[in-house]
């Protein structure tokens, strides 16, 4: 039994999800990943040593950075050259994350508001510390007497990442060139059988952003967060098999759960942001109120 | 006429309000202000040179820090010793911020969740880069047809700081030992004649936090933000003379105004946070959506 309070456990979760910027992280040993002089990611030391052999694609490390060679001067030439490297690494190297190859491309750019400079296989982004964007939906209900409940998904036990853990009612990554609301409607339909007529009522309310590192590399992530009040009689249903079950839980129970290991960590962050915005955490009694908020909204 | 878009002007506002962490700020020349080995602020170079003469209170600069002498080992001895220094500086030195002396004490502590180590006159906190906490209230109405409007205050022309600018319907600093909701109810009553029965319905929804510097020093600030839906027939009234007038404006007009110089900058930030939480900014069309959110919630 841990003697930590709920508040301390939540603070620890936020620290773990921002561990790339903690003392002792690999950050000082990472190389910047640059295209055309602009940083688009972080290359961890174990990846940098593998890239040496692809000298027609990547520069030698210089001033703490590895760059794509300038001859790769368009979106398509860059995307194809890096993809060829990744296909080769996938054959030759025991990189765990590449075993989860998805044939799904993410955009690579210095900031979200910049035009994409290339695209990259989703499963490889952590090797280059490339920012990943996604959308998460808080599906909730309010009873006639005003009591709030939230729908949570239990991830399938066969998911590559975080099998069997609690998740938001629907969520998904933003693939290259696809809009945020469009992705939301698609994920709601595919994962939870929420029809478009309901999903389109979801309200954009926040982003949650953080950077963590693990054995697969560096994960700077930004999730666009939507709230979706679901009709009381509506029940989400298992769609594409990414989810094994859905539960409707009183918000107090959800609050308890987010400080446990049963939650996929970034989904717990999305719920924490919901609790704060819906006045379910009291700044006069929660000593870490402001730490929670800054921990949820870190600059990438 | 500026050719900047609304988005760019809002981004510039957020950058100005976080200029202490920008390249070229005085940060690298500031000394840490420490009590008992813990940092509680930043001392700008022009202030550090004045503190040399108070060697019974402050240490010599060492390893980039100035400390209170260890013999000042309690809340009251520290508060009194620093207050005596400030009273002397107020007489002897042309420090603009001390002309705004308020006889209002703020708590000084490493983090909000820590016990206060001393208190300090509000007008002096920027000389020591001590964090300041406050509460801001978004007072808004929703018409029967669902149209949202917001009450804004116009600050009195005789206010020491930001005279004549637009402000939230009520706001105030958190004095030492006073609660957040308590301060909210008091400020609503004093500044806007909002009775406690209405003010108590305000909902805690966020913090907005930022650090800027100007000629008066360093301002790391955290505002606890509340939303208060006001009855359609209610009108705030000028109370203690800090405000000259109140306006009820359509939310579209408020949105326009927050990118102008007519708004007190931190109040514009509080309104921006409101617009995001109330889905009045669309992440599919606002390229700086995420930059807005991280700019509003910086770690202090």
Automatic annotation (TrEMBL), chains A, B:
Domain Nudix hydrolase: 120-273
UniProt superkingdom: Eukaryota
Family matches, as Pfam families: DUF4743, NUDIX
CDD domains, per the entry: NUDIX_Tnr3_like
Parts forming coiled coils: none
GO terms for MF: 8-oxo-dGDP phosphatase activity
Matches recorded under InterPro entries: DUF4743, NUDIX_hydrolase-like_dom_sf, NUDIX_hydrolase_dom
Family matches, as PANTHER family: THIAMIN PYROPHOSPHOKINASE, THIAMIN PYROPHOSPHOKINASE 1
Protein name stated in the entry: Nudix hydrolase 20, chloroplastic-like
Organism per entry: Gouania willdenowi (Blunt-snouted clingfish)
Lineage, highest ranks first: Eukaryota, Metazoa, Chordata, Craniata, Vertebrata
Gene: tpk2
């Amino acid at each position: 039994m841990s003697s930590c309070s709920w508040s301390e456990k939540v603070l620890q979760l936020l620290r773990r999800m921002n561990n790339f910027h903690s003392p002792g992280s690999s950050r000082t040993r990472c190389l910047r990943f640059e295209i055309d002089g602009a940083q688009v990611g972080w290359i961890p030391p174990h990846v940098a040593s593998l890239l040496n052999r692809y000298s027609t694609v990547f520069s030698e490390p210089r001033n703490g950075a590895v760059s794509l060679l300038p001859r790769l001067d368009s979106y398509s030439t860059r995307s194809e050259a890096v993809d060829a490297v990744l296909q080769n690494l996938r054959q030759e190297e025991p990189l765990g994350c590449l075993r989860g190859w998805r044939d799904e491309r993410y955009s690579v750019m210095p900031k979200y508001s910049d035009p994409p400079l290339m695209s990259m296989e989703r499963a490889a982004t952590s090797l280059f510390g490339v920012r990943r964007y996604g959308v998460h939906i808080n599906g909730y209900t309010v009873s006639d007497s005003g009591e709030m409940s939230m729908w949570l998904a239990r991830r399938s036990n066969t998911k590559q990442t975080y099998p069997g853990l609690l998740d938001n009612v629907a969520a998904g990554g933003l693939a290259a060139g696809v809009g945020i609301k469009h992705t939301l409607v698609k994920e709601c339909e595919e994962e939870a059988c929420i029809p478009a007529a309901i999903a389109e009522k979801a309200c954009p309310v926040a982003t949650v952003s953080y950077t963590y590192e693990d054995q697969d590399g560096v994960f700077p992530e930004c999730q666009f967060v939507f709230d979706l009040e679901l009709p009381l009689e509506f029940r989400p249903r298992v769609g594409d098999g990414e989810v094994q079950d859905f539960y409707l839980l009183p918000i107090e129970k959800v609050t308890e759960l987010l400080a446990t290991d049963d939650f996929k960590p970034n989904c717990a962050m999305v719920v924490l942001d919901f609790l704060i915005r819906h006045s379910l955490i009291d700044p006069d009694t929660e000593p870490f109120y402001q730490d929670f908020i800054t921990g949820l909204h870190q600059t990438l």
